Amino acid sequence: MLFQGILIECFQKINQERTTSSVYNLLIGKKAIQTIQDARFYHIADYYGIYPDLTKTDYYQQLQQLLERNYLLADDEQRLQITKKGQEWLTANKTTLAGFYGSTYKNMIESFKQRFLLFIQTFTNIAKNEYRFIPITDNHEIEQFVKGFYKQYKHRSMVLLQQLYKELEHALSMVSDLEASMFVDRLTSFSSYGSSLQQLSQDYQQSIPDCYLTLQKVFYHLLYVQEYGEEYSMLKLFAKDLGTADTPLSQTAQFTRRLLKKQHTFEEIIQIRRLKANTIQDHFVEIAMHEEAFPFFDYLDSTIYEEIKEVVHKKQTYRLKEIKNNVHPDISYFQIRLALVLYNK
């Protein structure tokens, strides 16, 4: 129950401070500032964006099963809390949930996967002199990447396949037999079409979400080992230039950041951008999360910060409303949000 285990852990960590939809937004990788903050504040960033295709129907079906089996319990406000049974499951299965790097590789994993899979399909067919096949992806950028790869290395196709086989053999030796086997069954190569999620679900007697996340976990592992291991020259090629051009900031926040860098005041930025104050505040919080040199104390003096920090410690909460109710009335939600970002730096 990999997927359900992840749900249990997420609801344990947010500790009834967020709604059920907040975890759904986390898993699909919603780019809202609230979701990104939740991922960081509640230490669940490893699960950010790990299941971008998850439907709300499937998500709530899984939650309902956990409620019916008494792993989770809903309170009067329909916020979910972990039960004793859920805690016991987490304690016994904690290691099975490790190995996701959602926030770290959010800008890389999908392109890395498609490059990797299309390369294997293309080069195994070419090695057998088969040049007519239906590519497993119609993504133009991915197709261009593999075509460029082929033009550069077409005379060494067998050497590259052998090198990749060697790297995969080593990398997959570090994951479970189930993960390695399911991953291999998913690959499309010459005269062998990879199993669908439905087929994997039947073959391995696992739910479709569990199969999907098992495969995701292996791809996160491949991204991790190519980054930190020297012996993965092929895997490094598939990851080359991915994510480096992406900024963690939304496009609109980037515009606000440029104005901030030019020493414009908060009020001036509102006028220039013709946006509401709340929207610019959202941008500031987003910028503060990603920039070490953000001028927190231009908007938040040390006394206010210490007061907010004391409430967080005393109440053990990140709920904005609860913090607001326990600090001086003049302290704004904006200051609380900035303080929480600084607190989690």
Automatic annotation (TrEMBL):
Domain Helicase Helix-turn-helix positions: 252-340
Molecular function via GO: 3'-5' DNA helicase activity
Any one biological process term the GO annotation gives: DNA repair
Domain of life: Bacteria
Residue span(s) of domain RQC: 7-94
Name of the featured protein: Helicase Helix-turn-helix domain-containing protein
